Amino acid sequence: MCGIVGYVGPRQAQEVVVEGLRRLEYRGYDSAGVALVVPSEGGGGRIAEAKKAGKLANLEKVLAEDLLPASHTGIGHTRWATHGAPNDVNAHPHLGHERRVALVHNGIIENFAELRSRLEADDHVLVSETDTEVVAHLVELQVESGVDLTTAMQRVCQVLEGAFTLVAVDAHDPDRVVAARRNSPLVVGVGEGEHFLGSDVAAFIEHTREALELGQDQVVVITRDGVQITDFEGRPAEGRRYHVDWDLSAAEKDGHDWFMRKEIFEQPKAVADSLLGRRSQEGLLQLDEMRLADDEIRDISKIIIIAAGTSFYAGMVAKYAIEHWTRIPVEVELSSEFRYRDPILDYSTLVVAISQSGETADTLQAIRHARTQRSKVLAICNTNGSTIPRESDAVIYTHAGPEIGVASTKGFLTQLVACYLLALYMAQVKGTRYGDEIDEVMSQLEAIPAQIESVLAGAQQVYDLAEDHVGTRSVLFLGRHAGYPVALEGALKLKEIAYLHAEGFAAGELKHGPIALVEEGLPVLCVVPPRGRDQLHEKMISGIQEVRARGARTICLAEHGDTKIEPYADVLIRLPRVPVLLQPLVATVPLQLFACELATLLGHDVDQPRNLAKSVTVE
Ligand code: F6R
Questions:
Q1: What is the DSSP string of 155-221?
Q2: Which of 388, 414, 463, 470 is most buried, by CB atoms within 10 Å?
Q3: Whose CA is nearest to atom 13 of ligand 1?
Q4: How far is the CA of 574 from the centre of ligand 1 (A)?
């Protein structure tokens, strides 16, 4: 939610900042802006800025017509609006009263109304509706009083409430950019004779793969030669240095029309990478970021999975796997609801937080609540150095690489892999499954990348199907057991990027209400369970018959060799044969392709769907 960039170094700051914004645009694209410090001969200096509503391309057009002056220090922002409409005036950066300080912000300043009234009482004119402009004025008041930008930022952070990443420059101090963070992402890029700031490493990955992770409530100063970190009171602090294990090519479209399509096709590798190195030489499962002792795992009597959106559906699949393999009861809860129902938690409850970005505000608040109740928290996350894994007792990193399309695809599949690994690991420690049983599932998992490849090889059939549905306004998805979350995920993908009415249902629930939606020609995508579970399979066929009898057009996803389904399928998409618990890993893929292709045919921006942003850092 909002992308932030900062730069100090020998290059032209405008180029570095705009390039960084392009890589961060997936975080928000309501408006964009840059501010540069332009030094003047006799000292002093001034701020040059440009900002524009809409996508980054609009700002680039403005800059192409009217290039900003040369500068080596700059900040930039791409916005997902919270306070105030996405127009030119509300776009960041915001300037102080004297136009001396420019500042960008991600997050929400909760006490901004009170701070704004105080400033207005002192005759400050605030031109935007944003909470950010208030902070720009406050920081500027501080530098005007004679302290440097670093002290100004520290002092202002002490009076702010809420979640924020702030990045500021001072026209009178052209060699530094100062930033602060509380509950909102910010990383430092460490170069040679130059330094970068970004909401995530994509902002500077083409210049350096060396990064510095910051802690909570810290202020960081970057200059050409160094990085200095303090807390909000000015006491020295340290960041954690790490090397980013992917490069620029991972953040490029690589010949695809959309990042989303590229990421769908990257899934075989993403799944394989997420399985790498999980078995010891003795053949035992090992999760080296686990950090929970075997005794602690044996003491777990209940698991609560918390997550949002697509990650929540991964959690639903995890419930089936964990309960089946470990016999530990599992609840799955939306993170936005979790704290408000007063959940029953204690030291024997393991809370599993699933978050691709590691920054989702609802999930973060939920794990904090769990930890205050003495529960252990394990994060499943794709983003090294992000807040949720940092604040968790243990973490399983997925290795999907950067996911840039707003709609999650490889993020989801690798979350599923991590959930299966967690379930199997717990089964190993608790002894609820024999070693050879665990081995067998691991071998089945290791075969999945090739099976996903075979689904992707059939993409054309799905694209043709999407073409047949260009005029469709409504689509239903049905599933049972582990196929039910797949149905929900298929529907979510279609809502997000094709803006269609799409609903996923548990097939058994149909006759309790949703079947009333069925009318002549309504497309119903049905995730048919593998035949190993005959009861499930038969029940699913009954559900399919029910909708078909009422005129629905059934599009069935069923495994190769399943002939029983043939009479009930208007369209049949074949899936590789995999065990029922693992079927989401292959059954989700055609649904992703369907949504991606349909949205493309409808002329939508697949990577940046309306109203959405990749990383939801506000509650
Ligand atoms: C859907 C999607 C969202 C996210 C949700 C949680 O395609 O991407 O529903 O899954 O916002 O995000 P994370 O996993 O980053 O916590």
A1: HHHHH--EEEEEEEEETT-TT-EEEEEESS--EEEE-SS-EEEESSGGGTTTT--EEEE--TTEEEE
A2: 414
A3: 355
A4: 28
